[in-house]
Amino acid sequence: MSIFKLILNTVPRPILIKLSYLARPVIAFFLKGDVYTDPIDGKNFRTFLPYGYETQRKNVLSPSTLSLERHRLLWLFLQQETDFFSAEKKVLHMAPEQCFLSRFRKQKNLAYVTADLHSPIADVKADICNLPFEENSFDIVFCNHVLENIADDTKAMQELYRVLKPGGMGIFQIPQDLNRATTFEDNSITDRKERTQLFGQYDHVRVYGRDYFDKLRTIGFRVDEVDYTQKIAPEMVERFCLSKGEILPVCYK
Hints:
The protein has nine helices and eleven strands. It has 253 residues and is α/β, with parallel strands linked by helices. The termini are far apart. It folds into two domains: 3-66, no CATH class; 70-252, Rossmann fold, CATH 3.40.50. The longest helix has 13 residues, at 69-81. It has helices spanning 3-10, 13-22, 24-30, 69-81, 98-106, 153-163, 192-199, 212-219, 234-239, and strands spanning 32-38, 43-45, 49-51, 57-61, 89-94, 110-116, 124-125, 138-143, 164-171, 222-226, 248-252. Helix content is 32%, strand content 23%. It has a seven-stranded mixed β-sheet with strand order 7-6-5-8-9-11-10, sandwiched between helices. The protein has a two-stranded antiparallel ribbon with strand order 1-2.
């Protein structure tokens, strides 16, 4: 086994991701190739890195941007289906992802605000269940892989709806089991190992099923369930290392 593979298999995930972020240029250099492409920066690699909390998924973490399947899918949707990169927009990004943060901040067309209760990279310290923004403030709201951590996700969704402008767009990705009709949660389960087994991570409080979209609709959103990988050529789905069949919840007020 190579030293590189040994590190991937033995270093705990949070430490590995931090090391990967610091060592991105070196890792990207050694993995250069022409098999896979990260559409966020256009760089090509012979392989992507593995990633996962308990069970690692192979070939999913970009060596250059550290994007995952969901990030690359969102980027392609914004790039090809919206005017996000050209029109003037006021944007709220809850729990901003590193692969997007600097790129979105550099865009001249965006008034870009980031918020999170704990993240040191966010502009505003804010509880998603009590956002410090006036209603109808933002043209676009991103809140990706956050709601599964929030005990009162109904209140969080109501706050996202409140601060979105009429006609505005929100994208609220979550880890979702499309084989499950209804969302599963059980607050009586407190053991971290058991929570990890049932919910995917110890800090998740539920596993969303297909009813997630209808819950957003009860808040007032018009929801488009977008399987965007269907619009992308199969060979490009593979080249971009996307998760075939992943649904983008594109919400409008």
